[in-house]
Design goal:
There is one protein chain. With 359 residues, this protein is of the alpha/beta class. It has helices at 15-27, 67-76, 91-96, 99-120, 162-181, 203-212, 232-245, 262-276, 308-314, 322-335, 337-343, 346-356, and strands at 6-10, 32-37, 57-61, 81-84, 132-138, 185-190, 192-194, 217-220, 226-231, 251-254, 259-261, 290-293. A seven-stranded parallel sheet has the order 3-2-1-4-5-6-10, with helices on both faces. A three-stranded mixed sheet has the order 7-9-11. Helix 2 packs parallel to helix 4 (99-120) and helix 4 (99-120) packs parallel to helix 5 (162-181). The longest helix is centred in the N-terminal third of the chain and has 22 residues, at 99-120. The chain is globular, with a radius of gyration of 20 Å. The structure holds nicotinamide-adenine-dinucleotide. Nicotinamide-adenine-dinucleotide binds at residues 10-11, 13-17, 36-40, 42-43, 63-65, 85-89, 104, 108, 136-138, 167, 190, 192-193, 199. Nicotinamide-adenine-dinucleotide (NAD) is lined by residues 10-11, 13-17, 36-40, 42-43, 63-65, 85-89, 104, 108, 136-138, 167, 190, 192-193, 199. InterPro entries: dTDP_Gluc_deHydtase, NAD(P)-bd_dom, NAD(P)-bd_dom_sf. Its cofactor is NAD(+). Residues 8-329 form the NAD(P)-binding domain.
């Protein structure tokens, strides 16, 4: 723990980053934390209002592709630990506009690696302490599974979307900096996250918001695509474990052991809301809002993670089941309707109409 003194978190105003910053400040007493975030559509300062006055926290609005800014921050803040979340993260947007994914996910990661290499030196040690560069990635780099099998850290990369291929590229760059320059890197590949502060373009918050308001619930294809869901706070505890105890140069898969078909996820949310939220007009069950829409092109059928390595080597396990986590999540969205109202502004509405109109 004493290794971690001055953390640079990138993309900390997004969904997972905000959850991570909250957990890090609550559990690492002596650290300082700088959040570098460009505040794209996905970055929201309101995700961090409760900690923005913490004297250990500093927010910098900026782009991870801006080499001089990144190098300046490394020097000024004597950064010894990087936790790199910043990315374009939405598969659908990567299909309609891949350029931003190449820039942020590939060139942005390269810029951060270069700053670390230059500042920390070839042997990966700063004058201050041991350093760590933790790159947060996805299980989507492994491609798509059939009905059986699990992704392990040895599964060959086979990304299928512009999003996953840009993340795969960044993972390879991170490994290359370890092998070539001895940079003290760690990579985590995690399954689908859900929980508080997720932008409502992603399945779970989109369905919660629409179901709450009696709107159509768009489900891609036959609804039988399988994802392995992990409660976001459990992802963040895993990242902290890897940061403190992970072996340099290694990759750790993180997953919840919670495989669900999309349609099951949607039905579960409908039932929880029927039980906990105001009923729809005429007591209409929310499941009746489910509408199957034209599938996403190249939609991966199934992802599932074998998290055996992080469990055996580092002793990490998820703390909640899907059933518990989804209840907590629905409760959070019910109690934070102001947050949703503010994020669903004109730009979001335009995006939503473009994605789902005519499907
Ligand atoms: P998000 O889209 O909610 O947040 C991304 C954040 O990065 C935003 O705050 C955005 O403003 C910032 N950002 C984007 N481009 C930037 C740039 N050029 N410079 C600085 N900041 C920039 O994403 P998320 O869901 O929180 O995901 C975070 C990371 O975790 C990503 O790297 C993603 O690939 C990875 N991941 C996500 C999931 C998931 O289910 N959401 C699963 C596994 C891995």
């Amino acid at each position: 723990e004493e290794l971690i003194k001055n953390i640079l978190v990138t993309g900390g105003s997004g969904f997972i980053g905000a959850n991570f910053i909250r957990l890090a400040l609550a559990t690492l007493d002596s650290c300082r934390l700088v959040n570098l975030d460009k505040l794209t559509y996905a970055g929201n300062p309101q995700n961090l209002t409760d900690i923005s006055d913490d004297p250990r926290y500093r927010f910098v609005q900026g782009d991870i592709c801006d080499a001089s800014l990144v190098e300046q921050l490394f020097a000024e803040e004597q950064i010894d630990t990087v936790v790199h979340f910043a990315a374009e993260s939405h598969v659908d947007r990567s299909i309609t506009g891949p350029a931003a994914f190449i820039e942020t996910n590939i060139l942005g990661t390269f810029t951060l690696l270069e700053a670390a290499r230059k500042t920390w030196g070839f042997d990966g040690r700063s004058p201050l302490a041991d350093c760590r560069f933790l790159h947060v990635s996805t299980d989507e780099v492994y491609g798509s599974l059939g009905d059986t099998g699990l992704f392990t850290e040895e599964t060959p990369y086979d990304p299928r979307s512009p999003y996953s291929s840009s993340k795969a590229s960044s993972d390879h760059l991170v490994s290359a900096y370890h092998h070539t320059y001895g940079l003290p890197t760690l990579i985590t590949n995690c399954s689908n996250n859900y929980g508080p502060y997720q932008f409502p373009e992603k399945l779970i918050p989109l369905i919660i918001n629409n179901a709450l308001n009696g709107k159509v619930l768009p489900v891609y294809g036959d609804g039988k695509n399988v994802r392995d869901w992990l409660y976001v706070v459990d992802h963040c505890t895993a990242i902290l474990k890897v940061l403190k105890k992970g072996h340099l140069g290694e990759t750790y898969n993180i997953g919840g052991n919670n495989e669900k078909q999309n349609i099951e996820v949607v039905q579960t949310i409908c039932d929880i809301l029927d039980d906990q939220a105001a009923p729809l007009p005429e007591g209409k069950p929310r499941r009746s809002l489910i509408t199957f829409v034209k599938d996403r092109p190249g939609h991966d059928r199934r992802y599932a993670i074998d998290a055996g390595k992080i469990t055996k080597e580092l002793g990490w396990e998820p703390s909640v089941t899907f059933e518990e986590g989804i209840r907590k999540t629905v409760k959070w969205y019910l109690e934070n309707s102001d947050w949703i109202t503010k994020v669903i502004d004109g730009t979001y509405q335009e995006y939503y109409d473009r994605m789902y109109a005519g499907r």
